[in-house]
């Protein structure tokens, strides 16, 4: 059998990771400013994380959700403590898309309604409903164009007020739109959305799969708006590479009978990874570090004259240019050994480094970027 070849690949095989660095099979060292789609939160192969997961693997790696698993309660307790939302309830799954599917289902069950409002340029995952609520037509098949979903532009309150009616079960928005190219919902917009959904009995779902877990300089990006969503979805940074996702459910929502379930969700090994991540985030003040190094990086990036706009918060940053960034990213990787991300917006580089980076790594990235941009300018001048 051969691989079902769906991904475009860089010709690199990685064999080792250590904090913000990854190594290929020839021993070449790379600076990781992308964390494999924003997954690495506490740094590659953090020793405490490795020890906790190894210990659990030696003890018991899996049993299904038909027995008491105290690790789930421990993870929920730690998440409540570290995120400050200790009155919420946690439902565990295995990925971001699954978390959003579960949140949408909870919303439909809770309201008895069937429609969804989502945002233009938004992304919520590849499963049927999550991709239908996403605005990436190239990821859609005819099966994913559902009339129960209406998309409205971000930060346009009038548009969402117009779209709202008594059939809408949920409004789903990203804490910061990631794949789109790092676009933030304004504070006033989220505040108004929170009021609007409360007054219409609609569930507000904050998709924090990419922007959560300290990525944007707060535990969840929506904290900048001071709101309390009905449902919060999370995944990427939650397991630092171990597949785990979750939905934090507000205290006023009772667990629905029969609607939810997962064979793997909340298994022992996943919980041990999730607990280890939260321990390290707290112990090493990684949310604060993300805010601090993120501001430093953004200040440095503002100085780069070729950059048209710098967007984002914490260590979730978009750098937009006047031209497609494909070549810059390739040169950063091949000439300076720096991994970065792209976005649906073709002129934007997306930065999602591990939350543990310091000024040294930030400076290393800025130096490499300036070098690539200067070389590019000179090439244009010579030709
Ligand atoms: N939601 C957001 C905001 C994402 O960025 C992603 C993935 O990039 C997802 C959901 C889907 O997560 P997963 O790939 O774990 O299903």
What would you note in describing this structure?
The chain has 383 residues and is of the alpha/beta class. The protein has 2 domains: 14-44 and 285-382, Aspartate Aminotransferase, domain 1, CATH 3.90.1150.10; 47-283, 3-Layer(aba) Sandwich (Aspartate Aminotransferase, domain 2). It has helices spanning 35-38, 47-59, 70-83, 96-111, 128-132, 157-163, 187-200, 268-283, 286-302, 326-336, 359-382; strands at 14-18, 21-24, 29-32, 89-93, 115-119, 149-152, 168-174, 203-207, 231-234, 245-249, 309-313, 316-320, 338-339, 348-351. The chain has a 7-stranded mixed beta sheet, sandwiched between helices. It has a 4-stranded mixed beta sheet with strand order 1-2-3-13. A 3-stranded antiparallel beta sheet has the order 11-12-14, with helices on one face. Helix 3 packs parallel to helix 8 and helix 9 (286-302) packs parallel to helix 11. Bound molecules: pyridoxal-5'-phosphate (PLP). Pyridoxal-5'-phosphate (PLP) binds next to helix 4. Pyridoxal-5'-phosphate is lined by residues 37, 95-97, 100, 123-125, 174, 178-179, 207, 209-210, 235.
């Amino acid at each position: 059998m051969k691989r079902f070849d769906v991904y475009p690949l860089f010709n690199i095989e990685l064999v080792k990771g250590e904090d913000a660095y990854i190594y290929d099979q020839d021993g070449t060292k790379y600076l990781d400013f992308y964390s494999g789609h924003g997954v690495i939160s506490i740094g590659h192969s953090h020793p405490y994380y490795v020890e906790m997961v190894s210990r659990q693997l030696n003890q018991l790696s899996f049993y299904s959700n038909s027995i008491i698993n105290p690790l789930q309660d421990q993870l929920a307790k730690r998440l409540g403590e570290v995120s400050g939302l200790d009155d919420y309830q946690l439902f565990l799954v295995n990925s971001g898309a699954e978390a959003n599917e579960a949140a949408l289902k909870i919303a439909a069950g809770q309201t008895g309604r069937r429609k969804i409002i989502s945002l233009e340029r938004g992304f919520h995952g590849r499963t049927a409903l999550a991709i239908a609520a996403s605005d990436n037509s190239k990821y859609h098949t005819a099966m994913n164009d559902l009339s129960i979903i209406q998309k409205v532009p971000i930060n346009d309150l009038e548009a969402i007020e117009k779209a709202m009616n008594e059939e809408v079960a949920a409004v789903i928005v990203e804490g910061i739109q990631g794949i789109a190219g790092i676009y933030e919902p304004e504070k006033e917009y989220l505040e108004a959305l929170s009021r609007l959904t409360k007054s219409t009995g609609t569930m507000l779902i904050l998709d924090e799969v990419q922007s959560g877990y300290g990525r944007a300089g707060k535990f969840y990006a929506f904290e900048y708006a001071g709101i309390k969503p009905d449902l919060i979805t999370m995944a990427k940074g939650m397991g630092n590479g171990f597949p785990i996702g979750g939905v934090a459910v507000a205290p006023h929502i009772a667990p629905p009978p029969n609607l939810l379930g997962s064979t793997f969700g909340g298994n022992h090994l996943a919980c041990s990874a999730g607990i280890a991540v939260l321990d390290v985030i707290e112990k090493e003040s990684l949310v604060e570090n993300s805010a601090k190094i993120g501001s430093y990086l953004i200040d440095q990036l503002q100085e780069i004259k070729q950059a048209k706009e710098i967007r984002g918060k914490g260590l979730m940053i978009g750098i937009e240019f006047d031209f497609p960034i494909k070549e810059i990213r390739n040169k950063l990787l091949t000439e300076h050994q720096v991994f970065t991300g792209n976005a649906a917006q073709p002129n934007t580089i997306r930065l999602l480094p591990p939350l543990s980076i310091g000024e040294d790594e930030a400076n290393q990235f800025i130096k490499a970027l300036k070098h690539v941009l200067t070389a590019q300018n000179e090439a244009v001048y010579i030709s």
